[in-house]
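DATA CLASS: polypeptide
GOAL: derive structure tokens

***
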Amino acid sequence: MDAEMIIALIDNAALLLALGVAYDILFSNTNINTHLKSILFGIIIGLIGIALMLNPWELSFGLFFDTRSILLSITGLFFGFIPAVIGALIIGSYRLYLGGVGALMGVSVITGCVIIGLLWRKYHNRLQKMFGRFNLFIFGILVHVFMLACTLLLPWPFAFEVIKYISLPVMLIYPIGTVLLGSILNNQLSRKRIQDKLKENEAKLQNFIDNVPVGMFRISSERKLIQTNPEMAYILGLKTPEQAIRYIEEGGEQLFVDPKNIEEIVAQIRKQGYVKHFEFEALRSDGKRIWLLMNARKNGQLKGESFTIDGFVHDITERKVAEEKLKQTKQKYRQACNLLQGVLESPKDVVIFALDKEYRYLAFNKNHRVTMEQIWGVNIEVGISMLSYITYPADREKAKMNFNRALAGEEFTLVEEYGDSSLNRLWYSNTYSPLKDDDKNIIGLTLVLIDITDRKKAEIRIAEEAARRRILIEQSLDGIVVLDQNGKVYEVNQKFADMLGYSREEILQLHVWDWDAKWTREELIEIVKNVDESGNHFETYHRLKDGTTINVEISSNGALFGEQKLIFCVCRDFTERKLAEDMLLNAKLAAEDASRSKGEFLATMSHELRTPLNSIIGFSDMMLSGNVGDLNEKQAKYINHISTGGKHLLELINDILDLSKIEAGKMEIQYESFSVSDVIEEVTMLIAPLALKKKIDLNIQVEPQLGSINADKIKFKQILYNLASNAIKFTPEKGYVGITANLVENMLEISVTDNGIGISTKDLCRLFQPFQQLNSYMTREHEGTGLGLILVKKYVEMHGGSVWVESEVGKGSTFTYSIPYC
């Protein structure tokens, strides 16, 4: 290790530390704009770097070492981007100017040191927590490990010889130099922050002293005023603290109206170290007397036995004036109260009390004390505001409003309702009056309360009873009229007036014979006399205002009101009901006549149509059988049409006759016990040829435990046959028809399912209507009477059951009916 090299490097590091200290002394407290200061500092860093490069340790021509790596890394760490970059530009430019074999290495070290310093600054808090007090040393090692790595930029193998030669001196001296320079700057910055904070606190304190609304002062024990604030000057009638200082120093003891006050203040401070809430009269600079309240405390020693006193004063002149006025009026209040108390206790059943202008009690009688206990549950006292005893804000505001009216000079009376602590309703007649002194000035108010609860409750009961009766009368759906014993209208509701076409005022002037059209005046007077409490009910005719008459039924009864007899009549117009009854009677007669005609028609049709139809069907079948000779193809076709049409017409007539009997109530159920499975088998045999003709798969499923049922066997078969034949009729060839029978909760449930054309939702509601087929196409394609389903529905309902359908167009239908299984 070369001693000359070590000495040169130490000298260079010492130069760096010396320049750093010089900068702190010369520029650290300079007040310059922040950005301008950063630029200026960057230039100074560049000049310091040049100074360091002018005193380097030179290893060979163009390759020299100095402490600019410490300077630039510390600049980036402590002062940020602008100073570091400007310094690096100046130092790098000068290094390029010097040139030599180490120029590239030098510029790389300059650039890398700045970058490392800036990155370490960005993550400084995290790195400080990680490395603690070794933070700067580790930072220095990292910077100079990078510097040694930059040595590899020298020509090889010369670079390895340089690293071998300088590594130990650099790593011994440069990290320590980094720590020393960093510590110096860290101490400088900490001191600067403390100084700035101190200046800020001093400014805040001065601002507080200048703006606080209290006079503040600092005075020596020799009575020399050291400091005061603007409020103190304002209290003394001056404009600036300097004027206040001169006034107190030049005027001396003349500030105190009573010279003994200052001696008393000094004595208290010497004895106990402070004076508290000391009130004295002072003289302002304009000669006006004011009252001040002082608080002061001894605060530290000066030279010898001298000390300072810090204190503050309040101007309490307004309070003192108010206290004096209050003192003057207390005597007047006391005289008024003594006089008023004698008046208050004289009434026995009256509540009286008096309040001052702040709503405080001046006096009250015993009745008021008891009343307040009942209403608010409080024990009142003289001198306490009455409003403080009133619990609810709304009641408090209402009382305050009335008090203010009296305090404004108004005298008035109100009836007011209260509720006591037991939730009883109380009413008082309250008379509010202003209370005046001898000079006619309003000093308060008096309130006289008279308990009118009993009277008010009686009035409410009467009003409620009247309202209740009026509601009963007016809300009645019938007309109500009350007659006196002479037949004149005593009272009437609007319904009765509207019934006769009069106004209520008009009908109150009438007698009963003015509208009754059934009896004479004499008969009506006799009826009125004979009505008693047992009442009477009768029908009559009332003549309306327009001369027309209506049918009326009346319920009446008599009652005595005092010595007067009144007849209460409830009248109901039943004219429309009478007309409806007559119309119903006429309709009944017409229906009975129509029923007889229908029966005669059906009987005639049964005989007149069935007889020739049976002949037509019989002869056509005979001819088709060949018993009367052979027929050619054309003749057979026509005779077949005649037979089919006749049978269809006969079926239609039979269905019509059955439907007519059902509607007329002449169709009866002939109950008998029969096997369900046997009947289903019989129906299956009847429809099997129809299914076979269309190659329809017929599937029958009967629950095994089904036995016998008590029902009309013929109608049961007819129901099942109609549903099954319909299913086959509306199912295309090679389709499917199924019949299932199950027992569901004591009901026999039979379903007929097909995969035919189906039924749309809008047509379902027309299914069980007579003579209904769903469209003209179906009528042509699938002939029928249109009565099959309505007969099914009627037969099922006659058994006490129900029928329903589930269907989807193009997928088929399921008709289900259920009847009691017994």
Summary: The radius of gyration is 62 Å. The first strand starts at residue 57 and ends at 60. Confidence is low (pLDDT under 50) at residues 775-780.
